[in-house]
Amino acid sequence: MNFRNTCKASSSLFRIRMAEGLQYRASAISGVFVSVFWGFLECVLFTVFYTYSDNGAWNNNGLSLSQTISYVWLAQGLFILQSMNIDGEIMAKINNGDVGVELCRPMNLYTHWFVKSSAGKLGTSWLRSLATILAGLMMPVSYALGAPASALGFACFLLSVVMAFVLCSAFAMFVTAIRLNITWGDGPTYMLLLFSGILSGTYLPLRLWPDFMQTFLYLQPFGGFADIPVQLYIGSLAPSGALPAIGLQLFWSALFIFAGRSIMTRKLKSIIVQGG
Amino acid sequence: MIAEGKIYFKYLRMHLLSGMEYKGWWLMLIQVLVVVISDPIATVLLFSRFGNIGEWTVAHIILVYSLAVASFGLAESLCRGFDYFPWQMLRSGDFDRLLLRPRSLFVQVAASRFHLHRLVRPITGICAAGWALSELGVSLTLGKIGILTMALAGGCIMYCGVFVLTSGLAFFTIKGLDWIYILTNASYQITRCPEPYMPKALKSMFSFVLPMLFISFYPAATVCGWGYPEWLGYLSLPAGAVFLGVSLLVWRFGVRHYKSTGS
User: Fold this and answer.
1) How many domains does chain B have?
2) Cβ separation A56–B50 shorter than 8 A
3) Per the UniProt record, which residue ranges are transmembrane (chain B) (predicted)?
């Protein structure tokens, strides 16, 4: 099948999933509520640590309190891009054997699922993300999301967010490809998703992790989920450092796509279709 | 009452045995253990970077936090059915079948699920509390153990109340219940903040709406002697019971207004 038809099919798949995601507005509002509560709690915690702790004044690795608070809100907004589990529809297809039906379609399975899962995530989450960030902007001054460090930094941030979306989707597909090996169950994929979440900086800004881990934390793939874009916004990563950082995101995305694709093609050669 | 208790344990035994039929059942134990341990990592790392907050060391926080987590875990193990109720039993319409049986609804729903791996959370929590107590140099007397046990029991009852409340509300809103997450998994996160530095609004919400501080912070304060009135530490059981009572009223109201869903 040629390139143009693939693009056309992808864009309609994307539209269908986006429209589907918008159906569940009540659950989206409810989700925003939780994100805002969580963000607020983190703000309180960081304020306590920065203000009252023994080493609060100096030992923050170049991340001031107002920067950290902006970090918290943006990370809450970006957190939604990360998947905590494999796309429900695809998971069901793997478990009940509809993979067979999917293979009959005249479209590469990897591309098909990539578009489907990323659109599914975007459809439900972009409203949630925006609402959370908006709530962050409207908080009382000491807990509010601040302005970007510079106009250039903001532009880099936007570019990096797009890359973060690609990276998250690529990683989710990598995990899905592993999950095609049905006999392993949920365990390994669940662990992978959990570790990626912890290392993405949404648990704790990566800068505040121990100093000896900093190089590792910069180079590992999951910082690209949230940490790199957010740092570009708050200015702890200067725009001059943006190019290598975004390059890093690009590199890991390419690697995950390559790995996901090759695992999938290998797996599909010997796949056992479940169910009937 | 005794008959209901028998049924409850029969149900649990059945779920336990059927769960063990899966070959990799112990993998789940490890998985939950990783989740439980990774959860307070952020707090520990913050303490290692910023140092103590006044008198508050990492052991203080871990003690309060682990009490809360352990009681949450206990409730999750014993009342797992209510946790699933809004998402599965109600939507699928399976609840109608329970209504036909001449046994207590509460027992039937509570015991409709049981997973062994849920017990990992309370066990880890209790171990962590033990570590924190020894770190703080508190010698355990019988009375202190009594207070801590009461705190766990009260907390377990309170979280059961949360699950029952969720299920009760689910009769009215079949979807859009995600906000309840604030009362479950997000609620014990507030114990990561030292109580004296907590904002007033947060403090009153988590003592009078959800009696979170009564089941974690005040018992810990009484046991370690942090200079709070001692009687506050004994309030865990009554506070949890009141919360469960209110939740049961909501649940009753919901059941009475239940019109079947699903097919």
Assistant:
1) 1
2) yes
3) 24-47, 56-75, 145-172, 208-228, 234-255
Separation CA A115–CA A10 (nearest Å): 6
Contact B210, B243 (CB under 8 A): yes
| B95 in any annotated domain | yes
In angstroms, the separation between the Cα of residue A26 and the nearest Cα of chain B is: 5
Q: What pLDDT was estimated at residue A1?
A: 55
SS3 of residue A80 by DSSP: coil
Q: Is residue B233 part of a domain?
A: yes
Residue of A44, A191, A198 lying closest to B202 (CB–CB):
A44
Q: Which of B27, B175, B192 sits opposite A26 (nearest CB)?
A: B175
Does the CB of B173 have a partner CB in chain A at under 8 Å? Answer: yes
Q: Give the pLDDT of residue A182.
A: 65
In a domain, B7, yes or no: yes
Could you give the CA distance from residue B263 to residue B56 in angstroms, rounded to a whole number? 55
Measured CA distances, B104 to B1, B74, B99, B101, B110 (Å):
9, 21, 9, 8, 10
What confidence tens digit (pLDDT) does each residue in B30-76 have?
888 988 898 888 889 999 888 888 888 999 999 999 999 999 999 98
Q: Which helix (H) or strand (E) holds A18?
A: helix A3-21
DSSP B205: I
Residue B261 lies in a domain: no
B41 and A CB contact within 8 Å: yes
Write out the residue range of the structural domain in which residue B33 sits: 2-256
Mean pLDDT value across residues A43-51: 91
Q: Which of A266-270, B141-145, B164-168 has the lowest mean pLDDT?
A: A266-270
pLDDT range class, residue A11, cuts 50, 70, 90: confident
Q: What is the DSSP string of A141-200?
A: GGGS----S-HHHHHHHHHHHHHHHHHHHHHHHHHHHHHTSGGG-SHHHHHHHHHHHHHT
Is the Cβ of B200 closer than 8 Å to some Cβ of chain A? no
**Complex ipTM:** 0.86
How far apart, in whole angstroms, are the C-alpha atoms of residue B263 and residue B258? 15
Count of CB atoms within 10 A of residue A186's CB?
A: 16
- The answer to whether A234 touches A149, Cβ cutoff 8 Å, is yes
- pLDDT tens per residue across span B171-210: 887 666 778 888 888 888 888 888 888 888 889 989 898 9
Amino acid at B2: I
Q: Which of helix, strand or coil describes residue A53?
A: strand
User: Do the chains contact at B49 and A61, CB–CB below 8 Å?
Assistant: yes
- Asked if B187 and B206 count as a contact pair (C-beta separation under 8 A), the reply is yes
**Interface contact B46-A208, CB threshold 8 A:** yes
